[in-house]
Amino acid sequence: MMFEHIGWIVEAKIKEGRREEFAAIVSEIVAETRKDGPVIVALNPGSLLASKMVKEGFGIAGNDLRIGAEIIHKAALSDEFSGASGKYFDNDIGAFGMLHADAQNAGTCQSVITAIEAALAKLKN
Q: Cα 89 from chain centroid?
């Protein structure tokens, strides 16, 4: 199934530390398919924050979790993000960054949409 394939790719990218790529793809899809809907931004809250995953996976304490919490709070409430649907914000550089090439590929985006729709259809049944 397409959904299983997409899920496997996302899982692999997350393990490689490249989750931003697929967050950006989903953000672009949402921006294109829901132009009149809520603002949806792909957001990297910060690398190696002091989460359980970082502590267990990398064996380090990690950076202060408040870094991530503060940017999520800012994204939710500030005007800076109000027109940012479909964009990618990289908190490591403190700015909007370039979308991954896959997020700009209509075929890849359509594959993700198809997989999401198939998964939703299964949930409805």
A: 10
